[in-house]
Each structure stands twice: as structure tokens, then as C-alpha cells.
Amino acid sequence: MRPLSHSSISLYRECPQKYKFKYIDKLPEKPKHFFSFGHSVHTALEFFYGVPALPAPSLEEVLGHYKKNWESKGYKDTKAEAEYFEEGQRILTSFYQKHIGDFKPPLFAEYGFTFEVDGVPVTGKVDRIDKLENNKIAIVDYKTGKAFDLSRVKEDSQLTMYQMACEELLGLKVDSLTFYHLPSLTALTVIPHSQGQITNLRKTIVQVSESIQEKSFDPKPEERKCSWCDYKPLCPVFKHLYATQDQGASAAFDGDLFADHSQDENLAALVDRYGKIKEEAKEVEDRIEDVKGQILDLLKKKGYVRAFGKNYEVSAAHEEKWDFKDKEQVLEVLRQAGFYDKVLAPSAPQIQKLMKDPGLPPLLRMKLEQLGTLVQHPVLRCKKVDEE
Q1: Domain-wise residue ranges, the chain
Q2: Which sign does the torsion angle of CA 140, 145, 151, 155 carry?
């Protein structure tokens, strides 16, 4: 049996069938931009902290390493990739400026470990381990995703696993556990996890291992998670919704989950046609946004709200919309107030419609306003000059 890791244990508990597709059938998933971005930034920080002794690498060297080892898989388009690349540069520059003053080489950068928990092999990698003056260690793990609060650091089993591994393999007591949120340069630190958390994790590791060996891989469908799953065309719960060859998983997909195996040639042609049109539409939309931006800039500079061409006219206005960062929290507030069925998901049109509803209870409106920000979006309307 392959060693378990924090991610594989989490995946099995989320959906045993998905675990089987990924780790046993070894079927690939689509590249994800957030994995590429996170790994690119992590690699740069490993380079920064990987020196055996002072001096530290220069900022130029860190950014050069980041650029050289940039992972470009999974991004929607070149524009999105460029935006993430710039964000990574911003993060690394800010991180460097904040920490270069007290820089010292850690005990380990990217510490890989393998150990056994009641006979079950467990593996993982700790981003950074610092040796403290009290002869204890501080465990640091970097995060590049959404912001989180201290409760996650207190409860996350990933840190419990790191604590277990480091104390057993290094023979040093853990003094602190940190999730470092890189986009905000926020280090959230807690004391070591309790013996109760360690005991519970040991039980979970053994239970997951036993279930895998027993070949227990029943799917655990859940609307929110399944909607983003790459394995839906193969899943027993959803595969009847997809037009594929009537064969087994490995034969039907030939090791490639994303190949075209439509048995209806007309449908396949329509799918390709639709995709091509979507690509062309995206190019047109980008050109429209570019010209729109130029017009709005000129209108703003000249103080105009309306302008004419030979055949068309445009008028500028501002439209107010609510911007919600934490969609899950918004859903929970709506659930508690009995309004969840009116939106089903915190999508922009549904939420905006709800926020404009004069019948929205004042208390619910206040809670939603606390979660969001009212943002003005420039709107440019265009019509032919001779239109009424």
C-alpha cells in the first residue's frame, strides 16, 4: 500500500471513489492554476531559506528563481497567468522585505518525512522548521489561497501530522505551529496540538488505511463538491449523464480522462463548433473590453457622460453591486434566515437581486452588508444614433 499523506487522507474522507480514481487507477485530473501558483511561490521560498549559512539570497536572486521555475499549467488564459505571476512577485517582494532583517537559515526548508503510525506508512513535507533557543522547533507551513482565521490553525490535522512526524523523527519537541498566509503576510501561530488531537489523527489514519485495504470506495456525492470534480464522467453516480463509449474506465479513457470519446459524431461536431465559437467570442469580448476601457478613460478625462460617433453613441453611468469575498459565510447567513432557497448559490445575479429587494428583512440585510462591499462598476451603453 502506498504511504498515506494529509492530502490523500483528506481526499479519501471527502470521497473514497475519487481517491480510487486518483491514487489507485492513477487517472489524471485537469491541471489547476492554484496548485501551479502555490508550488511556484513555495519553490521560491525554498530557494530563499535553502541556504546552509548566511548571507541570504538577494531579492533579485529569489525573483529570478521564481521566474525560472514558474509553473504555467492550469491557467484560464495568458492574461490570468500574467496576473498571477505578478501577484507572486508582489508576495515574494513583500515577504522578503518583511523578513530579510531577521533572516537566518532554518533547521530545514521543505523537510520530507516518512514514518509509521501503528504500522501504516505516512509521508509528507513541511515547508519550514526553525530551531529555537529553547531547543524546541517551530513548524511553519505556507498558504497561498483564501484567508482563514486562527480556529483553522488550532484544528487542522495537517499540522497535527507534522507535529507527530517531527517529534518522532527529529527527537525535538514542537514549540509552535504556524500557517503563514502569504498574500496578506499574516502568520497565525498556535501552541502544539493536544494529545487528544494526536490520538484522533492516529485513529483516522488507521481507519482510512483499513478501508482502503478493504477496497471500500463508495462515492459520497455532494452537490457543491461534485460540481467541480474532474471524475464525474466516470463516477457511478454521474456517468449516465455523459456520452462516452460503453466500456470500462481504463478502456474508455485510454489513460486520458479528457480525451474525446463521444459515440455520437453529430454531437461531437456540435461540441467542437460550440467550443470554437466560445473561443472566438472570448477574443471579441476582450477587444470590446479594451475599447470600452479606452472610451471610459476619455469620457472621464473630458468630464463627459455621453459621446457620438458617425453611427453609434455611448453613454456612461455607474452601477452599484455588492462584492462578497466569503461565499460560504454568505450562504450560511442566508440559510439561517430562511432565504437560501431564493439564491441556491451565492452567484452574482441572484445575490444582487436579493440585495435590491425592498422586502429583505433589515437584520438579514445588515448581516449581508457586513460581509460585502458596495462597489460601483462603470457601465457603458451603446446604441445606433438613429435608434429611439
Answers
A1: 1-218, 307-384
A2: negative
